[in-house]
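for the writeup, i need someone to sanity check this before i put it in the appendix. the sequnce is what the collaborator sent (i think, or maybe the updated version? ugh). structure was predicted straight from it, no edits. if anything looks off just tell me and ill rerun, i have time this weekend
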Amino acid sequence: MAEVEIYTTPMCGYCSRAKRLLKAKGVKFQEIDVMLSKKRRNEMMARAGSHTVPQIFVNGKLVGGSDELMMLEVDGKLDGLLGLE
């Protein structure tokens, strides 16, 4: 199974949507809360090139945000990316 990291903040609906999809697929992920950590937010921005959450990485590669994760699911590509096939 793939290694998944997701940068989030509390009360973020897009973060919740992305985590809900990953949990429904039985995927374990590392959640990194950037709300109160400038160091973690800067890390996220350096890796993703964006300041918005969520930012999702699979095996160290940027997938993008919640919308991109959902599009992978709709296109039938998410399971392969996550190593679920």
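The two ends are 9 Å apart (CA to CA). Helices lie at 13-24, 38-48, 66-74, 78-81.
thx in advance!!
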